[in-house]
Amino acid sequence: MSIFPRRLVHGTGVPMELDDTRLLIATKEPIKQDDLAARLKQARVVLEDAGDEQDARQLERINHTADRFWIRSADREPLDEGRIGLLREVLGDVLAWIGPVYRLGGGQSRSIGRSALVAPLPHVVLVRFRRGVEGPVVRALTSAARGLKVTEDRERSKYLNGLRYFVIDDPAQVNAYQLRDLLLEGQREQVADVRLETMPMVVPAAVIPNDTLWAQQWDMVQIEAPAGWDISTGSASVVVCVLDEGCDLTHPDLVFAGTGINLGSMSGDGSPTGSHGTACAGIVAATFNNSAGVAGVAGSAQILPAAFVTWSDAEIAAGISWATTNGADVISMSFGGYYVDPLIVDPSIVAADAAGLVMAAATHNYDSNSITYPATHPLVIGVGASDQVDDRKSPASPDGETWGSNFGPEISVVAPGVLVPTTDRQGADGYNVDGSGGTWAGVVYPSFGDAAGDYVTVFDGTSAATPHVAGLAALLLSEYPGLTNAEVRRIIERTADKTGTTAYVETAGYDSGTWNQNMGYGRISVRKALDLADLMIRDWPGDTGTEPSAPSGGNFWNFADVVVRIFDDDVFVPSDPLQSQNLEIGQTNYLYVRVRNVGPREARNVTVDARLTPYVGTQFAYPTDWTAVDGTHLAPTPMSATFATIPAGGEEIAKFSISAAQVEVLHSEAWHPCVVTSVNADNDYAFATAAFVSNPVVTRIGNLAQRNLSLINVLADTGAAFPFLAGNALNTDRFLELVINRTALPRAATLVLDLDGANVYFPEVDVDAHVPGGGGGGGGHDGCSSGLVFLDRTRVRTRFGCCEGVLTLEKGSRFDCVDKRRVRDVSVKGGDVVVRGGKRFALITDDIAVVRIEKAAGQLLPLVLEARLPAGVEAGRQLEVSVAQRDESGQVVGGASGLFITA
After folding, report:
1. Active site includes 244?
2. 68, 376, 723, 838: most buried by Cβ count inside 10 Å?
3. DSSP letters along 454-503, please?
4. Given the residues 19, 20, 49, 244, the one annotated as active site
């Protein structure tokens, strides 16, 4: 088959190898498959699906159209130029063109069989011209095509985001592959890029069809739709584009926002080109509570149908763009393929996202850890399929069907994808012809749906899962029209139920909660998504509730919406330390905590809680530091800390009293106390399912906040101590870094970090309690009561490495346990380590210094910053020293600040 290149490179960079046993042919006019098959027989070629069993055709549908057909040699031998010539002769004037078939390379190719076969169309080039080039564009193309006629399809170009769609009149003379090379080689001054339109051999719909009415809609029960419908069943003002094979426009259970479009002709309407789209539309929005058929997730919303003809990447791009400009709020895409050129489709996705549309796409049904495009695009919600036991659909699922839902790093959520009841093309045109059953995916079903053939009860695949998510997005936009598309996605992800057998873990880059690659953030919940309240305590003035929060400079311990007052005077100014963190000894003080509801729904049964620690820590862990009541975790007395409701967008200030006795504890030994606070509600589902194993929990979980409290008054030309605890019992890193900021101190001030002498400041804190291997009690370390002393001279035969010998221990030799409280190796950037009187200090000389400390896993490090202020500092000046703790990855996990006010 030398008329076509043996190898091409796909737009994604993946190599494609010619399959010389197959072709894609186009006819000038539509032709019946039976008539075409008879002609093909004369050239010893057959339609690709000739001989396929009915079950196989349902599972893997060949992408024939009315005038394009996939063929192969009947004997599976290569189609050489002689046989192609014979094919041209047999088809005669019926033939429009012949195109080659290629197999996409890559690891997924072997596992997806014919789904890896594609045809870069031989008669189409998509050209992006350089900015500012207006000139005789078509004339340049015609010149490059050696005088052959090249025509722009302006209607298609309009929807391709700057790519121009050109059709070659006679690809037998100069085909698209040759024209692409000619343009890129000879027209570089005008042409920036040239792409090929790629058509897949197998319909890429993530489908395995197989619903009858509410009693059989187990999927809606599983996603808690009935409870969600108490809040909303959707709004007719919300439109979901079902980008698929069009829809049955006369189906009595579907309501349409418009007649749609045929993406093959870029005209007409969205009438069916297959049965898949009608089934997807029913899951999205089959009319609710109309005493007929099934109920869709958003049964009062409307459908906008767009019908693929070839399923090519150019059609996908045009379909997304058309939906964006024709009133869609959500796009449901129950398809995906490795054949798609992202550079053709990506601009349409980006434009749709910028316009505020929510997009959901299927991960596909190959039981593979390689998800298909467009579900791989970060602006698209990648949807996998769950089974009837709430796990990822796999060949081992209880339904017995042999397919599995694709999984991997791009998966967002899952939804039911087996035996889903939905709408079907009416009568005998759809999946269900007359209600009788048969074999499907290796399982025998007595019935495929109702006797009239208007509904199907066995619609399957990630194709079935995706419209559940699109419907949920439509419900959220119906009930809360002010939500952005990013907020809709975040709500869907944060309220998903953590079902299945795979553990959910906190994963870098997945900010909507715990996640795994099989189930994403979990199986969607309509009830929880519509009922979500999202409570928060601001960590800093610019905190909007986005998790993780990103306070300027990483400081979240000095500016939280937490205030301490000497009097119960309702003054709430968290940005001013003098009005927010000063405790008065000898009297009752008051703690105010401002909570906000940034969720879409009213918060119910709101509870605010707080704990006071007598010491500053640079890292706190949930739940211990927020819930314990002991010598180092004091509970202030609630005055008004519960609220029946807080409306969406509303706020309340909780109040606590701090007794004089508690204040005395907090101020003893010149400690610097901290307060940690939390808020929860019955319907703050995201907090209820959050995990707290990573750090820092305070900025990652909006329901938690902390703040330093006390002030220190010092005289000029005197010293002041700022003791604190670094590390945490749950921090297993080998190293930590302390970033010390002394920019607010006078240059003449001396600042040192005492590395060995801070134990005296923490008599009530057991710093050994959580060190792995430590006994956590007794008079020594690691549970040892004393070291080992040799009373007499001792000789021990032993081996060190490869040397065997006798070790002699003189009388009085000792073996002592290592002091795990001691700071190990230290390095300083921006200062130096000095030794004074046998004790180590880090001398901080630069405005910002980094102290790197080696430690044991789980070790708490007692440290103290000692500042000496020079003479001449005016009275009343506020001088702050701040310390931020970073983990081994460089992430700020906590910190503390000391504020010195000169007297």
Report:
1. yes
2. 723
3. SEEEEEBSHHHHHHHHHHHHHHHHHH-TT--HHHHHHHHHHT-B--SSSP
4. 244
